[in-house]
Structure formats: structure tokens, C-alpha cells
Specification:
- The chain is an alpha+beta fold.
- The protein is built from nine helices and seven strands.
- Strands 4-5-6-7 form a four-stranded mixed beta sheet, with helices on both faces. Strands 1-2-3 form a three-stranded antiparallel beta sheet.
- The longest helix has 16 residues.
Length: about 240
């Protein structure tokens, strides 16, 4: 993280005032020493100012910060920025999130597929567990990009993708695939359930560990899920 080249220190300054001819009074006043470091130089520019000057500087900084939009802060399109602003205002997950206005917002709201994934994403982030969301694997168990893939595309066919793992975690020779299976966002027919079983078997044959959690588990007992994930990856 880059250091901001501005520092402020409270100091005492002796001021001289003339009471009348021949009479001088010295008074010690509280001032502030504002220093600005010159990049690439071994010296600083310093200014002595009073409380009112600092308040004006603070107000100007606040106004400048307020003028920066969410889109500008996170390098998004204006439309994407508006979507985030709406979530920040109305979405309970966003209101309580300590990662608001960070790069995590782009992943959480534009890359993840459901509120279940978003909830687990935040819990994993809080525990500083290193993971990859929406992680594509091919039929040999090798990471594959899913960008632009679609069925029927002769060049970039989605059939080359075995699965897109909700959260992929690799640590200490453990390769863990974590899925969230909800009832609203992951409604599964019998064929879909069988397909998931086939994917799980294939992943296990390739040396992966697979953990699937229901929507109820994610919503009601995310702490237990985190503990189980830690156990599988030998997290300390």
C-alpha cells in the first residue's frame, strides 16, 4: 500500500502582540504543521496553519471524495456502477459487508450466480481462505477459462468444460471443489441430480475432494461449513 505523502502534526507557536507602545505580550498558540513529501526528493514542503485552515482542507477533501462515483472507484461502466449503488442501498448483504467499495464487489455481484454463493463468498473472505470463484475445469481436471464459451461454438465450445466449481480451493496438495445447491437458484431435476453425481465421481477419480452444501446449510450454519472446509484443507 502506498503511503500518502501528507502528514499533520499539532505544534505550539509563540506569537507576539503589541498591547500598546512599548508593551509586548507573547502568547503560545496551538497550530498545525502540514508536511508534503516531494516524490523522489529528500525534503518536504511544510506549512503552518490553524484549525480553520484544516477544517477547510477537510471539507474540500470530503467534497472531492463525494464526487467520485462507484463506477470510477472500481473501474466499472456507468451502468455497472448504478447496479452496485442500488445493491449498496437495498441489499442486506451489501449493507453489512466490510468489503464494500472494494474489488470484491465486482466478483460478488457480477461473477457469482446466486445469493447463496455470495453469502459463502463473504464468509470465506472473512477467514482469509484463498479460493477461486466460478472456477472452470476440463475433463482432465485442468483449469479452463469459461469466458465466451457456448454450446455449438466450434472454436469455444462449452462441452470442453467438465464443471464450473462455485469455489475452488487448493492448499497442501488438497484440491477442494465446493458447491452450493439451493432450491431456488439450483433447482435440480432427476437428470440434473444424476449429472451432478457423475461430475462428483469424475472429480473424485481425478483426485479432487467435493463438498456440496444445501441452501439451508449455507443460510443457517455457514460457520459449520467454514469449519469443515478448514478441516479438509488443513487450515491453521
Amino acid at each position: 500500500m502506498k503511503r500518502i505523502p501528507i502528514s499533520i502534526k499539532k505544534i505550539k507557536v509563540e506569537e507576539i502582540s503589541n498591547l500598546m507602545i512599548g508593551q509586548i505580550q507573547k502568547e503560545e498558540r496551538t497550530k498545525f504543521l502540514l508536511s508534503i513529501d516531494e516524490k523522489g526528493q529528500d525534503w518536504s514542503k511544510t506549512f503552518i496553519c490553524d484549525r480553520e485552515n484544516l477544517q477547510k482542507l477537510r471539507d474540500e477533501i470530503d467534497e472531492a471524495l463525494r464526487s467520485i462515483t462507484t463506477a470510477e472507484t472500481l473501474n466499472l461502466t456507468p451502468d455497472e456502477g448504478k447496479i452496485l449503488d442500488q445493491h449498496f442501498e437495498n441489499d442486506p448483504l451489501c449493507k453489512e459487508c466490510k468489503y464494500k467499495q472494494s474489488f470484491n464487489c465486482k466478483i460478488c455481484l457480477f461473477k457469482l450466480q446466486s445469493p447463496l454463493e455470495r453469502l459463502l463468498f463473504l464468509e470465506l473472505s472473512k477467514e482469509r481462505i484463498n479460493f477461486q470463484p466460478q472456477y472452470g475445469l476440463d475433463w482432465k481436471g485442468v483449469h479452463i477459462s469459461i469466458d465466451g464459451k457456448e454450446y455449438g461454438n466450434p472454436i469455444n465450445n462449452f462441452k470442453n468444460v467438465l464443471t464450473v466449481v462455485d469455489f475452488f480451493i487448493e492448499k497442501r496438495n488438497q484440491r477442494l471443489c465446493v458447491y452450493t445447491d439451493g432450491h431456488t437458484y439450483h433447482e435440480r431435476t432427476e437428470d440434473q441430480a444424476q449429472r451432478d453425481k457423475n461430475i462428483d465421481r469424475k472429480l473424485q477419480a481425478l483426485g479432487f475432494t467435493v463438498l456440496r452444501f444445501t441452501g439451508k446449510e449455507v443460510n443457517e450454519n455457514s460457520g459449520k461449513i467454514i469449519d469443515e472446509i478448514k478441516q479438509w484443507i488443513g487450515y491453521n
